[in-house]
């Protein structure tokens, strides 16, 4: 905290004002103004590690915040005067193109946040399929047949893959939203459930909290929908490995 006062000296002929200021101790972390990830593979994590030092004259208690597709570890930290710590910033883009963000460092003393500008360019890497069309030979009914194809990774990163129903995460989210709509009970179901509670209570004098049970069931179903990776599924075709 800073303090500011005035010392006023009054004589018979004049008035003299002497300003008095005391600057409180500050924690100052030497984050860079800009952090550039340059070109990075899309849908792949790229990390940069910063060695941050407290060049102030007070212990630093701080929080670190940023926004997707950037993340930071640790999210909070305590750093003594003259001490250093490692801060890892991760860039995980889901779409190609330029991405911009800001890394905010907030001190617990109430000081204004300092910001590091973040930039990364996400690009496609050379990973593709050996063919865009697969034809299985004629197969007897009730029997099975198979053919093979390849995923070719010509890049310098390790590629993790899944065979999916939909082509993008946006389409996945739209499908999950549609499924959640059908999982959610209608007003008629809630009313019917409530009336059953009342009937049971009148007969037995007590009853289970059917509303809570229904609510828990709905939440479980919602969690299943949200956690479904929506992998490829078909009544006639299968893929291995998925």
| Biggest sheet overview | 5 strands, mixed
Strand order of the largest sheet: 3-10-9-5-7
**Structural class computed from helices and strand pairing:** alpha+beta
Number of domains: 2
Low-confidence runs (pLDDT<50, min 5 residues)?
none
CATH topology of the largest domain: Immunoglobulin-like
Task: Determine the strand fraction and express it as a percent band.
Answer: 25-35%
* Mean pLDDT reading: 88
CATH superfamily of the largest domain: Immunoglobulins
The helix count comes to 3
What's the β-strand tally?
12
Distance from first to last alpha carbon: 59 Å
Give a description of the structure.
The chain has helices spanning 169-183, 187-204, 210-227; strands at residues 3-10, 15-22, 34-41, 46-53, 60-65, 70-73, 76-79, 84-91, 97-107, 114-123, 127-129, 151-153. The protein has 242 residues and is α+β, with helices and mostly antiparallel strands. The strands form 4 sheets. Strands 3-10-9-5-7 form a 5-stranded mixed beta sheet, with no helix packed on it. Strand 9 (97-107) and strand 10 form a beta hairpin. Helix 1 (169-183) runs antiparallel to helix 3. The two termini are 59 Å apart. The mean pLDDT is 88.
